[in-house]
Amino acid sequence: MNLAKNNLSMFNFATLWFGASISVAEILTGGLLAPLGFKMGVLAILLGHLVGTTILVLGGIIGTEARIAALESTRISFGQYGSYFFSILNVLQLLGWTAVMIIVGARSVNQISKTLWSFDHLTVWSLLIGILIMLWLWLGKDSGWKKLNYVAVVLLFLLTLVLSSIIAGSQELFSGFGAGEMSFGSAVELAVVMPLSWLPLIADYTRFAKTRRSGAWGSWLGYFVGSSWMYIIGLGAGIIASDADPSAMLLAANLGLVALGIIVLSTVTTTFLDAYSAGVSFLNIFPRFNEKVIALVMTAIGTGIAVVVNIEEYESFLYAIGSVFAPLFAILLTDYFLLNQKKIQPDLLANWESLLLCAAGTVLYYQFINYDFIMGATIPVMVIISIIHFIIGRFTEKWKFVSKSSKA
């Protein structure tokens, strides 16, 4: 994909986000919903993804119309210093995602290699996946990369068909329940927060869309279909086998070496986006650095974290992402679409009202998590923060910290 011109079509975005959504992490997250049973689990998945993907695409529309990256767009509401702060948080969460994606992919691949060849070396697989992601980044502007990405999406689509056929063939799918406990509200939140985790990234790509329509609809269709499908596969696996790891299902289907290849491919195509956008967010603070070099460095750091840190579960990590970015983008989307503040003010250094309201939204998010609200936490928090900001935002001009040159 050539990320240097505004030439990306609806099909480009549909394949990009469909490929990004097909990952071991999404399948495993869907498996957490298994205690609800299949019918209620699917309802929570579709409801959460309908809301989450729509919010995601609204953030992408800003990137297309303003031709700016995701974290740069936060300057509209929070000012230059505010965007620096969120850029640092985003780099940290993307490094975390890079590490999580590498380690969960490596564990699945290691399980396959251990079964087939008694080769049990998690560190080796983590390093190999990290190297492949760096290669994918290096080829990102090569003319042949777009065709390679299409091939990858086709292979990943075949993976979803294989996993779906394995799940659908079980008689326990519609009558069974997974082990453990899960409320409907928590399930909805886990479905919302996955697309929300891409919100600080999407405009990094939609800024290169041919049109607003192509970027928005391509992204929405690609991610909604792909991510919902992955969650449902994980849900089904959690119900019938109490194990959502796709490696177990693929081994049971006697796919062996093919299983190893497609899990590595799915990990690389998804984690590439995390590493690339970590570099873009870094450039929001230090614009003189080379975008590709920084992305490669981010991948190397994420790979190192995956090797050193034993990451067992990331449900709390998803909640941490939602707690910050739900109120953040509630404020930005309110400014852009409701208050018609569509341009960055060059002299705006910080908007204290927006920053304080965002902090309050983070606290409120965890209150809704603790209350186990039936609609999760993201939806009510974004609605409440948006209403408050809409009412008081226009009356807090004195709360804005602007550069001294503009005051003069």
From TrEMBL:
Keywords: Membrane, Transmembrane, Transmembrane helix. GO terms for molecular function: cytosine transmembrane transporter activity. It is found in: Membrane. The chain crosses the membrane at residues 41-63, 84-104, 116-138, 150-170, 190-208, 220-242, 248-273, 293-311, 317-338, 350-368, 374-395. It is a multi-pass membrane protein. Pfam families: Transp_cyt_pur (PF02133). InterPro entries: CodB (IPR030191), Pur-cyt_permease (IPR001248), Thia_CytX (IPR012732). One of its GO terms (cellular component) is plasma membrane. It comes from the Bacteria. Belongs to the purine-cytosine permease (2.A.39) family. This is Putative hydroxymethylpyrimidine transporter CytX. It comes from Desulfosporosinus orientis (strain ATCC 19365 / DSM 765 / NCIMB 8382 / VKM B-1628 / Singapore I). The lineage of its organism: Bacteria, Bacillati, Bacillota, Clostridia, Eubacteriales.
